Amino acid sequence: MSEEKKLIRACRKGTPKAQRILYERYAPFLLGVIRRYISSYEDAEDVMSEAIFKVITRIDTYDFNGSFEGWVRRIGVNEALMFIRKVRNAFRVDSLDEHPFPMVDESVDIDGPLSPSHLIELLDQLPEGYRTIFNLYVMDGYKHREIGEMLNISIHTSKSQLIMAKKKLKALLEADSTFQKNNNPSTNNNRNYVQ
User: Fold this and answer.
1) 3-88: CATH topology
2) Are 7 and 18 in contact (CB under 8 A)?
């Protein structure tokens, strides 16, 4: 039996030591996931606490199908979305009518090496709707249909918000002199790309 399965089974029995180990192992991961959605670090910590509590108290619902980390991530994402809805009273997406440029296709790329902290800084500069949909689609792998159901928006709105998020991120990256210096191919052979 794997170490992870032993830990999960011990948590199901309510073993405090196992619960502490689970917390220490997954709290930083959850905070990273949630922080991408929520710009306030303090709020993200509060949401992470709620998420880790749900992981521990609902661990008996994990059926060992799929990765445990993926199950934990879904709880974190759901908690972040619940927080956004509660604080904002409703999920708000930016109207495309407010933007002076025409619709573009979904192929807008954001190329370049991004550290997790740099990505968080950039995501914090996005409007909430852009940030949420970018995270759900690009970072967490949800499809537009799923995003539409989760946020009670149309598939078209989800796609449009993703396009606008990518355009905004690309503009932010182009304006970032630190990124431009670090994105020089002659000085950077090990790239991680966000697309």
Assistant:
1) Rna Polymerase Sigma Factor; Chain: A (1.10.1740)
2) yes
Q: How long is the chain?
A: 195
Under 8 Å between Cβ of 76 and 48: yes
Mark the ranges of the chain whose per-residue pLDDT is less than 50: 90, 94-108, 185-195
* CATH number, domain 96-182: 1.10.10.10
Determine the Cα–Cα distance for residues 8 and 84; give it in Å rounded to an integer.
29
Domain residues of the chain, as ranges? 3-88, 96-182
Sequence-ordered list of residues with C-beta below 8 angstroms from that of 122, at least 6 positions apart, any chain? 114, 169, 172, 173
Measured distance CA(143)–CA(158) in Å, rounded: 9
Tell me the pLDDT tens digit for each residue of 89-110. 545 554 433 333 333 334 445 5
Q: Which residues contact 113 (CB under 8 A, 6 or more apart)?
A: 182, 183, 188, 190, 191, 192, 193
Task: Write down the pLDDT at residue 103.
Answer: 35
